């Protein structure tokens, strides 16, 4: 009996010692904010690395591209037409005008050829697509899923391929996903600037590819479903509808081939 009591007391003292040691460790362990950079700065630095790697990979992919995408010469010809002031021919073309317009602008501002300017615009679109998906995932699922999503898009070969060539897909994806990220964040924390950002992203993505209309439609439905008593919802629906109306002439502009 005495031996059982002695064993019980020994085990109790050992358990108390373990708990005390664990408590001391927890008390002495530095908090995440004390052991490294502040949370906001860590995200900023991490995003800088993520977006920098994204841009570098796409530029490297272009260095190993021997033949441009089959629609590439058309976009370059449209950019040249914009640089020459032949807007009627550009607006009448089936391809939407924002990508070649940005190519012409970059070429003019930085003094580079149309092909180089087109790659820069495509890479910028690819970087925006990484940022847009990161922000949307962070809003909906938290930091861990956001970082995983961002790196998957940054490193995925197909994502690199379509945003490192003379084609509008990279820019379209970037603008669409930035608008979607604004819509996702607005749905969690309604703010006026987010509603406006969604409308702008929807309108600009439509000016790159016609599928951008889908984001306009989804945004209007989401804003309306929130209720007209919400001022942000009312203005968000107005901004999205305005983006749709402003983009419509580029779709209905008569083609010179007709």
Shape: flat
> What is the overall pLDDT average?
81
Helix content: over 70%
Structural class: mainly alpha
Task: Give Rg in angstroms.
Answer: 26 Å
Topology, number of strands: 0
DSSP helix count?
13
Could you list the spans in which at least 5 consecutive residues all have pLDDT below 50? 18-35
- The overall number of domains is 2
* Percentage of β-strand residues: under 5%
Secondary-structure element string: HHHHHHHHHHHHH
Distance between the termini: 105 Å
Largest sheet: none
How would you explain this protein's 3D organization?
- Helix 4 (about 70-85) packs across helix 6 and helix 7 (about 115-140) runs antiparallel to helix 8 (about 145-155).
- This protein folds into two domains: about 1-45; about 60-250, no CATH class.
- The longest helix is centred in the middle third of the chain and has 28 residues, at about 115-140.
- It is mainly α and about 260 residues long.
- The radius of gyration is 26 Å and the shape is flat.
- The model is unreliable at about 20-35 (pLDDT under 50).
- The chain has 13 helices and no strands.
């Amino acid at each position: 009996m005495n031996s059982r009591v002695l064993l019980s007391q020994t085990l109790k003292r050992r358990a108390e010692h373990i708990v005390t040691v664990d408590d001391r460790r927890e008390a002495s362990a530095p908090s995440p904010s004390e052991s490294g950079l502040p949370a906001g700065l860590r995200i900023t630095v991490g995003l800088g690395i993520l977006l920098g790697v994204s841009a570098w990979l796409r530029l490297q992919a272009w260095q190993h591209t021997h033949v441009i995408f089959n629609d590439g010469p058309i976009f370059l010809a449209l950019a040249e037409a914009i640089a020459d002031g032949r807007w009627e021919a550009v607006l009448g073309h089936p391809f939407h005008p924002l990508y070649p317009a940005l190519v012409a602008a970059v070429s003019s501002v930085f003094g580079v050829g149309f092909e180089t300017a087109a790659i820069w615009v495509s890479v910028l679109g690819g970087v925006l697509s990484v940022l847009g998906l990161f922000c949307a995932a962070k809003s909906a699922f938290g930091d861990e899923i956001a970082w995983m999503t961002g790196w998957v898009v940054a490193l995925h070969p197909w994502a690199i391929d379509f945003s490192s060539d003379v084609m509008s897909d990279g820019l379209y994806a970037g603008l669409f996903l930035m608008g979607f990220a604004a819509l996702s964040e607005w749905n969690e924390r309604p703010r006026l600037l987010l509603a406006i950002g969604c409308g702008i992203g929807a309108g600009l993505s439509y000016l790159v590819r016609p599928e951008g209309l889908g984001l306009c439609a989804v945004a209007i439905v989401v804003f309306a479903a929130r209720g007209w008593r919400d001022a942000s919802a009312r203005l968000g629906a107005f901004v999205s509808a305005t983006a749709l109306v402003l983009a419509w002439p580029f779709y209905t502009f008569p083609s010179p081939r007709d």
